Amino acid sequence: MNKFRSLAFAALAASAAAMSVASATAAGDHMNYVLFTPGTESISMSGSTIDVERARALRRGNESLLYVREGGAAYVIRDPATLRAAAALFKPQSDLGERQGELGRRQGELGARQGELGAEQGRLGALQANSPPRAAAELAIQQGELGRRQGELGRQQGELGQQQAELGREQARLAEIAQEKLHALVADALRRGLAQRVD
Predict the structure, then answer these.
(1) Contact criterion met (CB below 8 Å) for 47 and 69
(2) Cα separation of 168 and 64, whole Å?
(3) CB 168 within 8 A of CB 47
(4) Alpha helices in the chain (DSSP H)
(5) For residues 49 and 36, what is the distance between their CA atoms, to the nearest angstrom?
(6) What confidence score (pLDDT) does residue 40 get?
(7) Is 69 within 8 Å of 198 (Cβ atoms)?
(8) Which SS3 state, helix, strand or coil, does residue 193 take?
(9) Angle of helix 80-129 relative to helix 133-191, nearest 10 degrees?
(10) How far is CA 83 from CA 38, 53, 88, in A?
(11) How many CB atoms lie within 10 A of CB 54?
């Protein structure tokens, strides 16, 4: 369960960060929103913690809910079809966020291994300093092997970092698309009287 929560949090953080970047650079009116996934505390959002708190206060139990604030007005949408359409907009970002979370987990494992190797290098270095020449030479060989392994782990970390950067760029692209489509979805809900004003 903790692993799932960590991945969900990483996905949410990556999604929210990408959406914030896309929103800040998008032309036109800025729309803050909070979309709750039914039965969970999982959200897709662009806005502030105040928006999240306001949306949470308007939520009934664990229902799906879309809170929108734009142009000085705030609305809540509970229409099931609109909420399903909104959730579908953010599904690609959520899936990508899970991939980012998995990469982050792998980076963490590599970092832990690098830390273990560093500790072993430190131990060998201390032994080497107080050893006779023959033993010091053998310890130097071991140090070299540990250095080689550290370099390989560093190379793997670099590859994972590049993959993370690529996924981050894709998150920003998907966020911009989702934001644009959400504008249209909310406008349609307003036209059809499916949005309740709450401010």
Answers:
(1) yes
(2) 27
(3) no
(4) 2-25, 49-58, 80-129, 133-191
(5) 14
(6) 86
(7) no
(8) coil
(9) 170
(10) 10, 19, 9
(11) 20
Are the beta carbons of 66 and 72 closer than 8 angstroms?
A: no
pLDDT above 80 for 184: yes
Residue 9: is its pLDDT beyond 60?
A: no
Q: Residue 64 burial (CB < 10 Å; 0-12/13-18/19+)? A: buried
Q: How far is CA 76 from CA 7, 30, 44, 66, 79, in A?
A: 28, 17, 15, 6, 9
Which residue, chain included where needed, has tokens 């650079």? 25
Each residue's pLDDT tens digit, 76-101: 999 999 999 999 999 999 899 999 99
* Residue written as token pair 């540990």: 146
Strand, coil or helix: 199:
coil
